[in-house]
Amino acid sequence: MAEEALECRLRYGTEIVDEDEMLVSAAREDTKAAGRLYDKYYGEIFRYIYHCTFDHSVTEDLTSNVFLAALRHIGRYKWRQIPFRAWLYRIATNEVRMHWRRQKRSKAISLQPDSSSQAEQNREFESGNPSAGDSVATAEEYHLLYKALLELRMKYRTVIILRYYEGKAIAEICEITGRKEGTVKSQLHRGLARLQDILVRWGVLPE
């Protein structure tokens, strides 16, 4: 029955249900379908959480938590409210938020990212991704950009990472965060302004 649900082309009126919806429907009864969702989104969610924490070990743990939570609550997921990808990002954002709440406020943040992801970060910098890092000229300054992001409040850091590191459109950020378009745009503007202030204060950007 689950395999039939996975392969059939379900329809609501004339709308063809996409792959994710078929997988979600099947995953409620079939672990193989859940595994396909995991394989499809693990890398994307891992990258997002890493950009939020800059810690490889923490990212592994939180990413595992995301998919465990998704599987546990998949029966309550409502497709018509938000797409499955956005739902996963919501869970991931909540996991990151809880992680930072568990950390001591006085804990020092390391200047250097962990070595296991150093090469990946340098490739991102050199690739010219559209981000606040475009104005930063060296790898060392790029690492300072990461540190500066961690200085921002969670709400600003989240929208900046989603927009400039994950390449999400404003509409998708609204789905992920549950915020209105005007709020997302305002938080992007304020977050970037505060990020620039930090980088100017640290001497990374000119005044």
TrEMBL record:
One MF term in the entry's GO annotations: sigma factor activity
UniProt region (Disordered), positions on chain: 107-134
Keywords from the UniProt entry: DNA-binding, Sigma factor, Transcription, Transcription regulation
Signal sequence, renumbered to the chain: none
InterPro entries for this protein: RNA_pol_sigma-70-like, RNA_pol_sigma-70_dom, RNA_pol_sigma70_r2, RNA_pol_sigma70_r4_t2, RNA_pol_sigma_r2, RNA_pol_sigma_r3/r4-like, WH-like_DNA-bd_sf
GO biological process: DNA-templated transcription initiation
Domain RNA polymerase sigma-70 region intervals: 37-105
Chain ranges of the RNA polymerase sigma factor 70 region 4 type domain: 144-195
NCBIfam families: sigma70-ECF
Family note: Belongs to the sigma-70 factor family. ECF subfamily.
Annotated protein name in UniProt: RNA polymerase sigma-70 region 2 domain-containing protein
Organism: marine sediment metagenome
